[in-house]
Write a structure and sequence with these properties.
This protein is of the alpha+beta class and 58 residues long. The chain has one domain. Helix content is 26%, strand content 33%. A 3-stranded antiparallel sheet has the order 1-2-3. It is globular.
Length: 58
């Protein structure tokens, strides 16, 4: 199999699910998911307002 890497900007907030600390994640198309906090933190980092402006030209 080939290897891939993806990059996307998402919205996220803390959310408990079945007693497990995690993150509610909302994608640009409106799709919502949930990830355990350790898995989320291994995949994402918080970005500043300036980084958002630079990356999205907004």
């Amino acid at each position: 199999m080939k290897k891939y890497i993806g990059t996307k900007i998402v919205l996220a907030e803390n959310e408990m699910k079945d007693g497990v600390e995690g993150m509610k994640v909302v994608y640009s198309d409106g799709y919502t998911s949930w990830s355990p906090k350790d898995i989320f933190n291994a995949s994402y980092r918080e970005i500043s307002v300036n980084e958002v402006k630079t990356l999205t030209n907004k």
